[in-house]
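re: ur msg from earlier - yeah i can do the protoporphyrin IX containing FE complex, just paste it... oh wait u already did. ok heres what im feeding in:
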Amino acid sequence: MQTATVPFRAPAPIPHTKPLGFAGFVWTASRNPIEIWGSRAFKEPWLRANWLSVPTIIVNDPKAIRALLVDNARNYAMQPLRQRVLRPMLRDGLLTAEGELWKRTRKSLAPVFTPRNIHALAPAMAERSRLFAEGLESLPDGRADIAFQMTLLTYDILQATLFSNDITGEPKEFAEAMELFLKRMGRVDPLDILDAPAFLPRIGRLLGQRSTNYFRGVIAGTMERRRRLMETDPQAAPNDFLTMLLKAEGLSASEIEDNIITFIGAGHETTARALGWTLYLLSQAPEEREKVEAEIDALLPGLPDPATWLDSLHHTRAAFEEAMRLYPPAPSLNRTALEADRVGDMDIPAGASVLVMPWLVHRHELLWENPLDFVPSRFLPGNRESIDRFQYLPFGVGPRVCIGSSFAMQEGVIALALLMRRLRFDYVGEKPPYPVQKITVQPRGGLPMRVSRR
Ligand code: HEM
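and the outut:
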C-alpha cells in the first residue's frame, strides 16, 4: 500500500510572541521586516498598531482588501516610504508615479502589455531559457547558487525582450552597472523608516551614482539609436519592448527611459526570486517535482509555440504560483489613507498607514488549509477557482496591479519548463534557506544547488 507523503513545510521566521520594543522594531524592520510579525498577525482579520506614532492598520480580510484596494482605491496613495526609497532611482516610471502622471502613463503603457504583445515575446523567452539551461549543464563542479543564477537568467530574458540584446554599451559593463543600480534600489535606509528629512544623506544611496549614470546613459543611447532606425528603416526594427514603447502614445523620451528602468527594477529580481524559490521547493518535494517533470516531458514535444505553455502546463504553473504564495516576491502593498474611512469594523483615520501584506495574507490561518506547507495542487484547475481573488496577491490588485503580471507568468512557466526538461536541481545547503525581505523576499546566503542532467 502506498502511503501519502507529508507535504514539505517551507522555512520561514517563527512569529514572535513578545513585543519587540522601539529599538527592536527599528532594528528588525531595517534588517528583515518579515520578522516583525507576531503570531496574531497570521490569525486576525486585521490589526492596529501605532508605529513610530503613525496609526497603522494591517489588513488580512479579503473583503476588506477589496474595499481598500479596489472600491475606494482613490483614497489610498502609495506610501511615502516606498516613494522615498524608489523615486530617486525610478523617477517618473509607473511604479513611483502618482496622480495625473500615473493615470497618463498607465494609459500609454496598457497597449504595450496586451496578450498579443506578450505572446510575441515568448520565443525570445524560450530561446534565452534554453541557452541558459545548456550553460548550467556545464558548470565546473555541477553546483551553483541558483538564486544568483536566476537573476542572471531573468536579466538575460529582459535584455532580449526589451532591447533584443541590441544595446549601445558594453554588455558586461552594462550588466555590472545594472547590478549596482538594483543593489542601491533594494537598500532601505533606517533613516527612511524613521522618516528623517530628505536632506540628510543616506549613505547607501550615495554609493554607485557613477554606475547609475552609466546605466541611464546606455539606455538613453539605445533608445536614440532605435528611434533613428525606426525612422530610416522601420522594417529592420525588432518587435521588442523598446520598439513598442517608442510607438506608445503620450510618453516623452525621459518618461520612456524611466519606464524601461522601472521594468528592469520591477521585473528582474521579482521573477528571479519566484523561479529560485520554485526550484528550491520542488527539490524538497520530489513527488511534486516528478509531476512537473512528467508533464513537461509529455506535453512539450506537442507544443511548439511557447506562448501556449502557460495555459497548458498545469503542474508547472501550479508549482510557480504556490511558490509565490509562500514566498511572495513583493511581500507588502503599502498605502497611506488620504481621508478617514470606515471598512467593516475598522476605523481608518486620515494619514494612517494601511498595509496589505501578501506575506501575511498568503500564510493566514483562516484563509488556507495548512498554510505553511508547499501544496501546488491548490492551484490546479478545479481547485484554483475556490481561491478568493483577494486572498492571493502576488501581483497586487486594483488599479495599481502589476502591469507585467502576464509577462512574468509566461516567463516563469517557460523558464521552468526549459530548465527542468533538461536538468534536475537538488538543494545542497547545510541549513534550509532563510527568507529575508529586502524589497523582494530572498534566501539569505542564496540557494546552493547541485545541477545535474536528467
Ligand atoms: C514575479 C514577478 C513579479 C511580481 C511578483 C510583481 C509584483 C508586483 C506587485 C505586487 C505590484 C503592485 C505594487 C503595489 O500595489 O504596491 C507590481 C507593480 C508593478 N509591476 Fe510587477 N511584479 C512582477 C513582475 C513584473 C514585470 C516583469 C514587470 C515589467 C515588465 C513589472 C512591472 C510593474 C510595474 C511597472 C508596476 C507598477 C504598476 C502601477 O503602479 O501602475 N512587474 N508588481
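cool cool. The chain has a mean pLDDT of 91. ping me if u need the other ligands too
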